[in-house]
Amino acid sequence: MRIARYAADGHIYYGTVELAADGGPHPDTVADLTGDPLAGPVNLTGRRHALAEVRLLAPVIPRSKIVGLARDHAGGPAAPLEAGATPAVFFKPNTSVIGPDEPIAVPALSRDTAVEGGLAVVIGRICRHLNAERVPEVVFGYTAANDVTARDFLADGQPWGIAKGFDSFTPLGPWLITHLSLEEAGNLEITTTLDEAVVQHGSTKQLLWPIARQIAYLSRVMTLLPGDVILTGAGAPAGSCRVEAGQRSEVAIEEIGRLGNPVIAEAD
Length: 268
Prior knowledge:
Elements: E1 2-8, E2 11-18, E3 29-33, E4 44-50, E5 55-56, E6 66-69, E7 89-92, E8 97-98, E9 104-106, E10 113-114, E11 117-123, E12 139-146, E13 149-150, H1 151-155, H2 160-163, E14 170-177, H3 182-185, E15 189-194, E16 197-203, H4 211-221, E17 229-231, E18 248-253, E19 257-265
Parallel strand pairs: 6-17, 8-14, 9-19
Antiparallel strand pairs: 1-2, 1-5, 1-14, 2-3, 3-4, 6-7, 10-13, 11-12, 11-17, 12-14, 15-16, 15-18, 18-19
């Protein structure tokens, strides 16, 4: 199932997306749902919109946190937890979240801002101290993410959360996919483009830390709550991902869809 959050008729809704390519009876439509799927049971209202006539929003606004694992593209097998290996973890504020086609604003304070596409996992149940086998029980769905970073801030020794925490630095979308298994999510192609030129291409199977291990590890450190977003990493080395005003960045993930955002300069 594809679950979208969108604006139509002056209101914000959640709905299920039906694409003509799926062979459904309706060409590219979204059917309204009652309430928030992350908050409890929902039902179809019977209302339906053409997908082209609504404005897609970020499919989730984390109530608690966005957690990312720092990129590591060694390409080999994951180091065992028993050996003491731990990933580098960073946090991003929910004010950094934007949706499809909303602009990424390059900060006036930065001279080296870069994009990086990756898979985002949305947590559906409160959890703590998971083992990897139980991770599928707490995953609500998956979406595409663009993890934007002011790299010159990192070079200056600023915390990851500052370099990655500017407003607009976490585009999410276009919708949540809830039907993928953890195994399927661990083998998806990811392509990041700037003005249609490929700057990054890889797969979630290249992640040094598999998705289940990432979430299990994080749950041993902190309580994960419904709506929390986990940025799992890019899974491939980035090319020339520096962005400037006037460009367009897109992240395409197999089985999920394409997330596109224009790039603008932030006003002083």
